[in-house]
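Lecture 7, part B: from sequences to assemblies.

Below are the input chains for today's worked example.
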Amino acid sequence: MVIHCEHLVKIYETTQSFRALDDVSLDIEKGDFVSIMGPSGCGKSTLLNILGLLDEPTSGEYLLNGVKTAHMKDFVRSRLRCNNIGFVFQSFNLMPKLSVLQNIALPMRYNSLIPRKEILPRARELLRRVGLEQKAENTPLQLSGGQCQRVACARALANRPEIILADEPTGNLDSKSGAEILNLLQELNQNGLTIIMVTHDEKIAAGARSIIRMKDGKIV
Amino acid sequence: MKLPDLIVTGWAEIISHKMRSFLSVFAIAIGIATTFYTLSILSQNYRNINRTAEISGTGRLDSQVDRPISMEQHRQLMQVLPPGSSVSLRTEEAFVLASYKEQPFSGFSMEGVLPSWMDSAFNYEVEGRFFNWQDIENKHRVAVIIVYPREKNLRDMYFLWDNHGVDTKLEDMAKHINLLNQQITLNGETFTVVGILRAPRVEKDFRAARDQERRQLILIPYSTWGEMLPYRLEYASTDLRIVTGDEKTAHLAQAELTSFLRQQFGRQFNPNIRLFRNELLLARKTAWYNLRSMFFIGLIAMIAGGIGIMNITMVIIFSRTREIGIRRALGATRLDILVQFLVEALLLGLCGAAGGIVLGYLAVVHMADNAAQMTSSWWVIATAVLLALATSFLFALYPAYQASKLKPVDALKYE
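Predicted structure of the full complex, as structure tokens:
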């Protein structure tokens, strides 16, 4: 069991308190490809942020690889994000001033286990894997949306994580590029990675092995 | 993140906002320039004061009387002074007709001195010999010439009335012809040059400002001077310098000299006698006082620079909140973020230090009174760099801490 959640609750305290997640329990096995679907505001991104250790639940238990994540030190959470989790965002979130190659290298620079000399060769290898080796020195601004998302996927793989969390990875892409990204994710899944993908798009969601549907902070 | 990567990242950020970086570097540079200038001058002053004490000895007093002093009076004075003291008398004449092998030359003053002239603040290399007491006793026609090395930025030492463009200057002549053991004519009388005194380069001349003789001089025995220029005896003033063994005897000598001069020139005679030790103390005190006031100015400039750095870092963090979020998502720890912004600020500080040292150096070269003597000391540079780094570190600490405290999920949502 890679991910095990019990009774996750997330409450945002604004003018009135809002339950973004309401008693969510969830198990995801190693090697799964799960897509989470639901209308906007149903809490799927909140869930993904909690699974990615970017956010903490108000209450409930989240075990990553059998380890309780509540009360974990920020340092440990950062290390886990670095080594175990790869993120793919809807808006790519690449560094606009860095070259494509340096963008892919960035997570490895925060990983103390990778020797500095190996970073760029590994980044180049990842870039080759997503078929953009000729774009290595371009900046993300010079690439199309589909290419950017492929770079983002390569970056997510940099530290050889076991889980990929994709938050609407095809949301900003045309259907052709979207299909390419989905193919890429499926290929990664076949190689053993656990993938959790949030999406609006039924067609894209259908590419996953299983679909979780959410509404008003609950799994339905 | 490892240090080389941090530096590359920080540097890229500095380069991509040239104006913003320039302004904060400039603010730091002004503070550093002020500090560098202050410290350079103080360091040089102190070195000079200490070297002066070394060369001149502290048991020394100087006075000037507006009367001639005869060799007989010199003998009497020697008897009342503490044993072991030396008295140097010195008097000067600027209008002298001089020639060498029928070629007239000018551009010098002629001074009558005693062999005891060598006993304090003597910083020359002697070629040939200096005067001895036999020269004084027998009123020998011998002369010693001071020769200066060629200076990079020579200040004009000639007297206005010398410069008619026709005469040969002694200074130029002495550089081309070795006058040692040559005959020169001074006011119609023939003198043999028995010695050449080679002066140190001005930047190596550590004597106190008043002792730093940078004029072109021809020295002749004091007694010979009196005989050659009897008409001058009416108006001559005499520099007196007494060197005793130590400070205690200097005080004693001061009292003895006062009573001797009153005995010679009347009870109302009020000699101005300066103890060299007091002058050194005063010089030190002035140096410290100047340092203190200028250091505060430097400190204020540094604080202004620091606030500049702080302001910039705050702005940077607002404009880069999303970047912080991305870095956190990719695995950066809070410490990584903190260090990243600190390294960036330190790089700005380092640039500021470099700029400030250059500015300060230019200020020293063009503004300082004793610019030619300035030598850079490593500790002044090290202090300037450390101060710049400390300022940028301290003032960037709070903004960088704020940046590291951002929650990844909030930072990522920031537009």
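Note for the exam: The radius of gyration of chain B is 32 Å. Keep this in mind when comparing with the next example.
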